[in-house]
């Protein structure tokens, strides 16, 4: 059943996930907020303890965190690191907080073939499996040493707004099932985090968006972030700092386009192309990088996401 429901199941800590997480250069602020949000949702008693230690009592503001769904939405343009972070942040959290976490990546087959009840049953079964898995970690004091992360990538395929005229009855029923699953996770206070990734936040059903404890917006790297990434990966090549800054500028917006490179454009297109351009006979030089920035076109943005 797991093989039908989930594309991947990964237990953290995991060395490959750690490598991929660390490769996400330039997302430090977003990572820090995500880790803090995750810690609070997995162990809500940590807020009360903090309030008691710093203020001598549990402040009224802490009550606002009692009714949050354990649910995040990652949204933004293509190639900005959403899925990679969603797949790997559990490793960092597991190492930092000494937790045992398991990632379940929901299969894209969840949409089914459109037969009556197919998508609804698939989603309901997936949530039932997650609840059964996490129930073994039930705690009497509100703290957990184990838990899981449910990743729903390409979420607009499952959570599209029910107000859309072209939506079929089966799709509407599937969204209802998804909302019921989210509500059940909140109600049962289980150690689970649910993450949806989408390139088009505006298409996600409003009721689904309202249930998110936090919506993380991923944007294309700015010049400072591009410079930090280039400095990391081109270390040891002998390219001087001033040239790295110029490359960071060249990979941004210009008179011909209103957008710059995505993280993926840099790490999966430009930098690998640089290696293939020079291997096995030449050295990496700034001139080769400059030439490649003229040839490699950044991925156009998806203008429909809001």
TrEMBL record:
Q: Which keywords accompany this UniProt record?
A: ATP-binding, Nucleotide-binding
One GO MF term on file is: ATP binding
According to the UniProt entry, the coiled-coil residues are: none
Q: Name one Pfam family in it.
A: AAA
- Whether Transmembrane helix counts among this entry's keywords is no
Origin: domain of life: Bacteria
> Where in the numbering of this chain does the AAA+ ATPase domain appear?
68-222
Cross-referenced InterPro entries: 26S_Proteasome_ATPase (IPR050221), AAA+_ATPase (IPR003593), ATPase_AAA_core (IPR003959), ATPase_AAA_CS (IPR003960), P-loop_NTPase (IPR027417)
Where do the TM regions start and end?
A: none
Q: What Gene3D superfamilies does this protein's entry cite?
A: P-loop containing nucleotide triphosphate hydrolases
Transcription recorded as keyword:
no
Protein family: Belongs to the AAA ATPase family.
Name of the featured protein: AAA+ ATPase domain-containing protein
